[in-house]
Amino acid sequence: MAGRFFPAALMARRNLTRTKMRSLLASLGIVIGVVAIASLGMFGVALQYSFTQNLGNVGNQLTVYPNSGENITELTERDMRTIRREASPTATVSPVKTRVEPVSYNREDAVRETIYGIENPGELYEAKEGRVSPFRSGALVGSSVAETHDLHPGSQITINGTSVRIRAVLEEGDAFSSTNPDNRVIVPATSFSQSGYSEAYVIESTGTQANETAMGIRDSLNDREQRVFVQELGSLVDTIEEQFQIINTVLAGIASISLLVAGISILNVMLMSTVERREEIGVLRAVGYQKRDVLKVMLMEATLLGFLGGIAGVILSLGAGLAINHYAVGDAMAVFRLPNAWYVGAAFAFGVLTSIVSGLYPAWKAASEEPVDALRG
Amino acid sequence: MTVIDAQGLVKRYRTGGQTLYALAGIDFALEAGEFVSIMGPSGSGKTTLLNILGLLDTPTEGTVLLEGQDVTGLGDSKRTALRKRTIGFVFQHFYLLPTLTAVENVEVPLLLDSDPQVKKRARTLLERLGLGERLDHKPDELSGGQKQRVAIARSLINSPKVVLADEPTGNLDSETGRQILDEFRRIADEDDVAIVAVTHDDLVNEYVDRTVHLVDGTIGRERKNGG
């Protein structure tokens, strides 16, 4: 049926079956090239994905610090009002006070630690054990602190000689977030005597919104002098993702060397084939095949080799992708995500393209031979 | 009706400092339905003449008229198109495509046209040549005579005005050769196709209307059969 619609494909297909082993080996090169590109690409995507998973949802967070270089040691109430004004109405704005106090757990020797004062920690954290809100007295501890010192709601710790009751152990936070409470001890802000704040967290609903707010805060507060630094985790994430992109491109570049080798092997096979079939091609030209017809038949052979190798390569790559994602991300089905489709698709396209490009010279050589010379033998 | 009319054909080759004359001034005309053989020793220019008549090659001097149209100066692509429309070729070594069946081989000249009628016509031609039982066989499953019949059927698929045969019996035993020549004779008589056969084989001369002898690129004596 296909022969009816694509007679050139029929001839090309029959020609390839004439030297099965040779055709098979030639497309094996393409298979390897496609698998190399696709699976290295998918490996990069899996790495990036597992990194992003660890990173969590930090792209929408901002942290505002006073610029100690300009002798500004704290954010004032006025600064906080400006920050609240610049943030969108749905944003969570949490001013944070800090001081260093000797802290003692379980009657051990006191160690000097930073104590965080947060007015309404319920906006930022969830409790793993106990309750976060209402928070008027006592202390909250992060999960690492709780684990190290075996603390639970109701346990007692001593801060600066005063016994304080633990109200809750907090849920783990995102590893790279500046709000991460895992190693912190948090007390109500009202227990601080100082009026200024040492930092402020702004949590917006989206990364874009966070970026706009950051610019707004910089414009208002750093108008005359550099009063504050605004740290955007989103831009950090962007930088890291750019790095991954570069790594991926380099990996794909290395993999495409194997496609180059495959291309040369196809070039070789096609050249041999045109030499062997010199007279046949001469006959085709004699019985009325134009140069472009011969070109078409020969290129069709190269294309078929590429398709064959490409399809086999895609199937093997999906298998490799399942394994990669199973081990790197812990979810084999993660292979069916868009960036992977992109890599597999690109690998396939490169495979076919390589075959066609490699077939060009032999096809042109076959087509431009004078039939008289070819038939003379 | 004159199918091919060639006047003053000269073909020169330059090799090194020497000029070789493959053809040194030849007039050759061919009528529809005529079966002509061209004989001569090796190097006498037989194949060169056949190639020029078949539009595979161009003469250095002289003109070729195909059905009254001057085709001498045509470029490769126009000559190729004319070959496809009006000329059939039969070769000594058959030159069938080993990967295609008998029917597909017959279809080859028109294969890229995707015309559904071609397959039917190819079958009819093969049946006429006595290969009705061998339609779907590959060339390596056919005898020499059968292969040459397939090649003849291929040369007829485009309903040509002229069939050019280069040593058509060269690779066949005399019995098979006779059968092939019978076919040529029949095609010339029944289909009014002009046939030119270049040959060393004297057997051919029993079947042709006339024989042209080439010696050193010029026409020697000419013998007419039955006339």
UniProtKB/TrEMBL annotation, chain A:
Q: Where in the cell is it found?
A: Cell membrane
Q: Which GO terms describe its cellular component?
A: plasma membrane
MacB-like periplasmic core domain sequence ranges: 23-207
Q: Where is the ABC3 transporter permease C-terminal domain?
A: 254-371
Q: Look up and give the membrane topology term.
A: Multi-pass membrane protein
Q: Which domain of life is it from?
A: Archaea
Q: Which UniProt keywords apply?
A: Cell membrane, Membrane, Transmembrane, Transmembrane helix
Q: Which Pfam families does UniProt cross-reference here?
A: FtsX, MacB_PCD
Q: Which InterPro entries does the UniProt entry name for this protein?
A: ABC3_permease_C (IPR003838), MacB_PCD (IPR025857), Macrolide_Exporter_MacB (IPR050250)
Gene Ontology MF: a single term: transmembrane transporter activity
* Transmembrane regions listed in the UniProt entry: 21-47, 250-271, 302-329, 341-361
For this chain, the family text in UniProt reads: Belongs to the ABC-4 integral membrane protein family.
What protein is this chain from?
ABC transporter permease
UniProt source species: Haloarcula japonica (strain ATCC 49778 / DSM 6131 / JCM 7785 / NBRC 101032 / NCIMB 13157 / TR-1)
From TrEMBL, chain B:
Q: Which CDD domains match?
A: ABC_MJ0796_LolCDE_FtsE
For this entry, the protein name equals: ABC transporter ATP-binding protein
* One Gene Ontology term of the molecular function aspect: ATP binding
Which SMART domains does the protein's record reference? Answer: AAA
Q: Which UniProt keywords apply?
A: ATP-binding, Nucleotide-binding, Transport
| InterPro entries registered for this protein in UniProt | AAA+_ATPase, ABC_transporter-like_ATP-bd, ABC_transporter-like_CS, ABC_transpr_LolD-like, MacB-like_ATP-bd, P-loop_NTPase
Where's the ABC transporter domain? 4-227
Signal sequence extent: none
What Pfam families does this protein map onto?
A: ABC_tran (PF00005)
Q: Does the keyword tRNA-binding apply?
A: no
Choose one Gene Ontology CC annotation of this protein and give it: plasma membrane
Q: Which PANTHER family did the record assign?
A: ABC TRANSPORTER ABCH.1, IMPORT ATP-BINDING PROTEIN
